[in-house]
């Protein structure tokens, strides 16, 4: 259970964990509400797993902390979850990964206005300054790191295709950063369509790319679920040797293959589902230590290569 | 002076002209009967009068002035009200809500009490025991007809068009209806009345128009036309022998029923039926006739004994009944008998499909069966591939009879063999029934049509409140005797009366 | 009943033909063997399910749970194969065991739907709305929120079920074709098909005609469950995984295909070959949008929606013409 120390915020966390050690147990019980989207695809599945794991561990360590976890399949349900937490569970703090920014901004602001401590994860709210603590992956870096790898490893005139996620701000940020990074390299983006972070959809879109373009040098699938779907389509078409693929988010199966030196999967870019653990732990620290817990924690996106892949491999996570 | 009239009205559907220059006048304070076989054009005329159809040529005159209605409700606003045969009632609304639908009392909020009271008044006039807040869905067919009539009465009609209102009513209800018609007539309402029951027509009508094939073939005043004369005019040929002659010899007992119960409606019914015999079952709607029949063929849970010949027969489902050679022809041919959107062939073979090849159904065998049915039962269909719903009622009934007879049953229970059917087809069906009996089969005829029961049956079983009220045979089968048993008036009192 | 060549019969065929012409005009690879194989193979899952759905809808029922059921069956199949691998080893016995599990689970799931509808007498919409949620939650729960993946070596072994074939025709296409031919014959020429139409047009008439209405209805749901099982057997080898998002909205695509093909949503008339046309139309829309950059792929759903509504408008025209 040591995996969550590995990311960008490692240093800050270590310091705080140190402080937590000295913290004295308090009499009053604090309730922390955690509201996240439900496990509809691999990345969210991993995130759910990390959230549950962290909560179980913190509850065992700190008897004075109580957690309320709710998962929602859509924004409306998430708003209702948050309202219920405030009304019926009397939470002291809220850790929220907004399903979508716009619809959640108002309700989260209401929680803040009621004097609760608010931690926002991954997707920022539409109005800045509401949250006390912001923990997120770096979408801009996620696209940029991948783009830089393409720029460095492909000759001018190379042809690539892109599989995008579900149409969202987050997806736009990643793709924009990717395109900016390859700008001026002479790499031609043949097509960029939405694979919705879904294996089946990515399989279909990739099949059609393969019918449409006789020559593809590389694929950027902005998520490992999509990378798996795309790989199956490429394999079926018998064009495995023609192109390599870069996915993202560090799914264990993909990391394993990078470790093994699969030529089709040279590298990966992290976007850690464990960021939710960081957020919950930092929020918990407010109640078990005297440390001031506010600010922004951006967990960087790192390039995973065969050399460093072992650090990113967690065989017992579902993702 | 006429209230509502048609002058030289033609109407076509596509290339087919169904009305050829109809002139018709409705006078105030008169009942005008419009009679004719199914398909003669009565429904089309009523739809044109009621504003539901426009004539292709010719005029509709209201108080002598030509009118064109955009819709039925617009005609209703002018005082022309139609009582439909196919009910226009919303099944999930209450009686009161239906009667005042679209004309609710009250301002911003509905005045439920006033509407309920007004409804109660209308129902009292009709001696109808239905509660104003009963749901239409829960009512019997005859009560629904009474509600439809109450709705028309509430409209304060100047012209009332009645499309076979008595078809589903019991004897007693028909009498109430006649009293209301008399009352409306005396108030100056012009009434157009249609019915297949010619005795009703000669009793009610001040004026009779006979229709055949879309043209008027006869006009007559009260008393100018006998029932036989009407029938002859409608059919276009002499109809002396509506009923076949009685059969004289019967075979052994084919079916015996002992102490038969169909909870909660039928109690302790026993009877026997011989080969070659037609047994009539009479009784009011709700006396348990249909329930008895459905119990006998396994459509309803029952207990008691059924013997075929001398062997006991277990009948818990229709297929079991069929295995014992018992078949049932439902009274509700549109909702229980035939698939209206399917072809003749698909309807004919539906209940005996296993006999037409397995696993692949033989189209050839099916077609052959249809050809045979069409000739055996004189089914007249413009096309074999047409939907059954587009056939006339008489041809539908003949097809249903053919379907029931396909497995060659030995005991046939026919519930209302001629409801809503013209006189010519009726006579044909009576002869079919006679033919079945003469072939050595046993037939049970359940009917509300008194002449039918009297004319067809070798024996009559009368049911009242779920029990056998009496049995009549031979010369004892007389209308008065049957009515006495149906109504439950005792022998002595009626003899004194 | 022989279909007469009316607008409603020709409509879907004409739409399919127009789409093929459009695709061929926009991209020369559209009619290549590889693309045709891709489109047909990817239509096979929903196609097989839609054939089963045709029977359910024709007999007046509805099944909203098939997408979730497919995910659940896939999950159980993978779980069973991973569990049996140590004892059976990678090979044919394990593959057969997986197929057996998929078909059995599909059959039981269909039986559950059917029994709730016919024995407990609950509306099909309600029952299958319920089981839709149940199956999907179960697979998410079994997968612990993530993805259930088949062991890699086994995936290699059963991959040919999706990717292989004979004479250049892949297995999913062959299986789909077989299911369609059987479905068409059953619907047109057997008692079961006739009874489905009879029950759908008026279940009371069917009951009074000695048709065992409940049994036929039950059988339609069981057959649909079985076809979901078959479809899953083809699906799992493709990616070797199942998750909470497997088969998402397949139920609506299957229902849409059935309706586009000319089967009446209220029951009483079913057309299996029409369903196949419907499935192909829906897949081709996606394929052409991917191949041609014609309009934004965001509008894929809108184009499918327009086609569904048009199909129903054509049906209306037909029924009002019959009304007279």
UniProtKB/TrEMBL annotation, chain A:
Domain Periplasmic binding protein: residue ranges: 32-280
One Pfam family linked to the record: Peripla_BP_4
Domain of life: Bacteria
Keyword Phosphoprotein attributed: no
GO cellular component: cell envelope
Single GO MF descriptor: carbohydrate binding
UniProt KW Zinc keyword: no
Signal peptide stretch: 1-25
InterPro entries, per database record: Peripla_BP_I, SBP_2_dom
Subcellular location: Cell envelope
Record CDD domains: PBP1_ABC_sugar_binding-like (cd06311)
Protein keywords: Signal
UniProt similarity note: Belongs to the bacterial solute-binding protein 2 family.
Name by which UniProt lists this protein: ABC transporter substrate-binding protein
Origin organism lineage: Bacteria, Pseudomonadati, Pseudomonadota, Alphaproteobacteria, Rhodobacterales
Automatic annotation (TrEMBL), chain B:
GO cellular component entries: plasma membrane
Classification via CDD domains: ABC_Carb_Monos_I (cd03216), ABC_Carb_Monos_II (cd03215)
Membrane topology: Peripheral membrane protein
Alphabetically ordered keywords of this record: ATP-binding, Cell membrane, Membrane, Nucleotide-binding, Repeat, Sugar transport, Translocase, Transport
Protein name, UniProt field: ABC transporter ATP-binding protein
Listed GO MF terms: ATP binding; ATP hydrolysis activity
Signal sequence residues: none
Matches recorded under InterPro entries: AAA+_ATPase (IPR003593), ABC_carbohydrate_import_ATPase (IPR050107), ABC_transporter-like_ATP-bd (IPR003439), ABC_transporter-like_CS (IPR017871), P-loop_NTPase (IPR027417)
Pfam families per the UniProt record, alphabetical: ABC_tran
Main subcellular localisation: membrane
Keyword Repeat found: yes
Gene3D superfamilies (alphabetical): P-loop containing nucleotide triphosphate hydrolases (3.40.50.300)
Keyword Glycoprotein belongs to the record: no
Domain ABC transporter, chain residue ranges per copy: 4-238, 237-490
Subcellular location: Cell membrane
UniProtKB/TrEMBL annotation, chain C:
Annotated Gene Ontology cellular component terms: plasma membrane
Any Pfam family the entry gives: BPD_transp_2
Upper taxonomic lineage: Bacteria, Pseudomonadati, Pseudomonadota, Alphaproteobacteria, Rhodobacterales
Subcellular location: Cell membrane
GO MF annotations, alphabetized: transmembrane transporter activity
InterPro entries assigned: ABC_transp_permease (IPR001851)
Alphabetical list of PANTHER family matching this protein: ABC TRANSPORTER PERMEASE PROTEIN YPHD-RELATED-RELATED, RIBOSE IMPORT PERMEASE PROTEIN RBSC
Keywords noted in UniProt: Cell membrane, Membrane, Transmembrane, Transmembrane helix
Protein name per the record: ABC transporter permease
Topology with respect to the bilayer: Multi-pass membrane protein
Domain of life: Bacteria
TM helices/strands, residue ranges: 39-57, 64-84, 90-112, 124-143, 163-186, 218-236, 248-265, 272-292, 298-314
């Amino acid at each position: 259970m040591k995996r969550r120390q590995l990311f960008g915020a490692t240093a800050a966390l270590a310091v705080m964990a140190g402080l937590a050690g000295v913290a004295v147990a308090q009499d009053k019980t604090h309730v922390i509400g955690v509201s996240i989207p439900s496990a509809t695809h691999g990345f969210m599945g991993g995130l759910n797993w990390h959230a549950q794991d962290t909560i179980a561990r913190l509850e065992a360590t700190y008897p004075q902390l109580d957690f309320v976890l709710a998962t929602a399949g859509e924004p409306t349900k998430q708003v209702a979850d948050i309202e219920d937490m405030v009304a019926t569970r009397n939470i002291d703090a809220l850790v929220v990964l907004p399903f979508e920014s716009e619809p959640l901004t108002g309700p989260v602001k209401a929680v803040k206005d009621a004097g609760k401590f608010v931690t926002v994860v991954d997707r920022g709210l539409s109005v800045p300054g509401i949250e006390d603590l912001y923990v997120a992956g770096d979408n801009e870096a996620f696209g940029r790191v991948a783009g830089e790898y393409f720029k460095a490893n492909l000759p001018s005139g190379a042809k690539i295709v892109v599989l995008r996620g579900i149409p969202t701000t987050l997806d736009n940020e990643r793709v924009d950063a990717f395109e900016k990074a390859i700008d001026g390299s002479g790499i031609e983006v043949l097509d960029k369509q939405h694979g919705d972070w879904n294996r089946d959809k990515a399989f279909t879109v990739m099949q059609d790319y393969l019918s449409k373009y006789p020559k593809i040098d590389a694929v950027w699938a902005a998520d490992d679920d999509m990378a798996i779907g795309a790989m199956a389509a490429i394999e079926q078409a018998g064009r495995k040797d023609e192109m390599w693929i870069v996915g993202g988010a560090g799914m264990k199966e993909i990391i394993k293959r990078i470790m093994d030196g699969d030529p089709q999967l040279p590298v990966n870019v992290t976007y850690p589902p464990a960021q939710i653990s960081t957020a919950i732990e930092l929020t918990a620290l407010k109640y078990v230590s005297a440390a001031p817990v506010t600010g922004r924690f951006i967990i960087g996106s790192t390039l995973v290569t065969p050399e460093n892949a072992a650090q990113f491999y967690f065989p017992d996570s579902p993702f | 002076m006429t209230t509502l009239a048609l002058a030289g009205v033609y109407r076509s559907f596509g290339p087919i002209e169904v009305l050829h220059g109809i002139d018709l006048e409705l006078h105030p304070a008169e009942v005008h009967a419009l009679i004719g076989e199914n398909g003669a054009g009565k429904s089309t005329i009523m739809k044109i009068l009621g504003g539901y159809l426009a004539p292709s040529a010719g005029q509709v005159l209201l108080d002598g002035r030509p009118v064109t209605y955009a819709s039925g409700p617009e005609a209703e606003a002018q005082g022309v009200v139609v009582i439909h045969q196919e009910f226009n009632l919303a099944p999930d609304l209450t009686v009161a809500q239906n009667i005042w639908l679209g004309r609710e009392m009250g301002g911003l909020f509905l005045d439920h009490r006033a509407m309920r009271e007004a409804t109660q008044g209308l129902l009292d006039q009709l001696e109808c025991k239905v509660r104003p807040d009963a749901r239409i869905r829960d009512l019997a067919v005859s009560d629904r007809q009474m509600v439809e009539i109450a709705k028309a009465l509430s409209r304060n009609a100047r012209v009332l068009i009645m499309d076979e209102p008595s078809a589903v009513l019991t004897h007693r209800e028909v009498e109430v209806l006649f009293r209301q018609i008399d009352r409306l007539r005396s108030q100056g309402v012009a009434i157009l009345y249609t019915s297949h029951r010619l005795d009703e027509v000669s009793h009610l009508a001040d004026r009779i128009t006979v229709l055949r094939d879309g043209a008027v073939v006869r006009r007559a005043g009260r008393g100018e036309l006998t029932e036989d004369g009407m029938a002859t005019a409608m059919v276009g040929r002499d109809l002396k022998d509506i009923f076949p002659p009685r059969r004289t010899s019967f075979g052994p007992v084919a079916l015996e029923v002992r102490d038969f119960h169909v909870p909660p409606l039928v109690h302790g019914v026993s009877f026997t039926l011989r080969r070659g015999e037609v047994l009539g079952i009479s009784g009011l709607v709700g006396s348990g006739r249909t329930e008895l029949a459905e119990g006998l063929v396994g459509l309803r849970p029952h207990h008691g004994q059924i013997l075929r010949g001398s062997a006991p027969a277990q009948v818990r489902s229709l297929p079991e009944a069929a295995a014992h050679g018992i078949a049932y022809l439902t009274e509700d041919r549109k909702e229980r008998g035939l698939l209206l959107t399917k072809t003749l062939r698909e309807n004919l073979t539906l209940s005996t499909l296993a006999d037409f090849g397995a696993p692949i159904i033989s189209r050839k065998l099916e077609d052959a069966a249809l050809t045979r049915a069409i000739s055996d039962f004189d089914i007249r269909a413009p096309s074999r591939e047409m939907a059954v719903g587009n056939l006339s009622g008489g041809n539908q009934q003949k097809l249903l009879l053919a379907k029931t007879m396909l497995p060659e049953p030995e005991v046939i229970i026919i519930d209302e063999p001629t409801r809503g059917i013209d006189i010519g087809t009726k006579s044909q069906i009576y002869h079919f029934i006679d033919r079945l009996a003469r072939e050595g089969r046993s037939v049970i005829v359940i009917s509300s049509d008194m002449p039918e029961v009297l004319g067809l049956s070798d024996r009559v079983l009368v049911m009242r409140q779920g029990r056998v009220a009496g049995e009549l045979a031979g010369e004892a089968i007389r209308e008065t005797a049957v009515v006495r048993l149906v109504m439950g008036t005792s022998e002595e009192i009626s003899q004194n009366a | 009943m022989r279909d007469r060549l009316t607008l409603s019969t020709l409509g879907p065929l004409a739409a399919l033909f127009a789409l093929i012409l459009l695709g061929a005009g926009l991209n020369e690879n559209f009619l290549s063997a590889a693309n045709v194989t891709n489109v047909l193979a990817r239509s096979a899952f929903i196609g097989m399910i839609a054939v089963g759905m045709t029977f359910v809808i024709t007999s007046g029922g509805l099944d909203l749970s098939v997408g979730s059921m497919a995910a659940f069956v896939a999950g159980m199949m993978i779980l069973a194969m991973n569990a049996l691998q140590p004892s059976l080893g990678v090979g044919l016995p394990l593959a057969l065991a997986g197929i057996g599990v998929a078909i059995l689970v599909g059959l039981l799931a269909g039986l559950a739907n059917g029994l709730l509808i016919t024995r407990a007498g609950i509306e099909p919409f309600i029952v299958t709305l319920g089981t839709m949620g149940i199956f999907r939650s179960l697979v998410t729960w079994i997968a612990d929120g993530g993805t259930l993946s088949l062991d890699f070596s086994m995936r290699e072994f059963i991959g040919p079920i999706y990717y292989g074939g004979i004479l250049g025709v892949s297995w999913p296409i062959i299986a789909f074709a077989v299911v369609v031919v059987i479905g068409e014959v059953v619907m047109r020429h057997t008692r079961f098909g006739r009874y489905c139409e009879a029950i759908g047009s008026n279940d009371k008439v069917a009951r009074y005609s000695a048709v065992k209405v409940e049994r036929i209805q039950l059988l339609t749901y069981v057959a649909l469950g079985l076809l979901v099982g078959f479809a899953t057997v083809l699906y799992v080898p493709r990616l070797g995984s199942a998750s909470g998002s497997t088969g998402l909205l397949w139920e609506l695509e299957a229902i849409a295909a059935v309706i586009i093909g000319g089967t009446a949503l209220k029951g009483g008339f079913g057309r299996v070959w029409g369903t196949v046309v419907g499935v192909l139309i829906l897949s081709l829309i996606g394929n052409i949008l991917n191949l041609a950059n014609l309009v934004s792929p965001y509008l894929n759903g809108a184009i499918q929606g327009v086609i569904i509504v048009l199909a129903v408008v054509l049906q209306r025209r037909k029924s009002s013409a019959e009304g007279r």
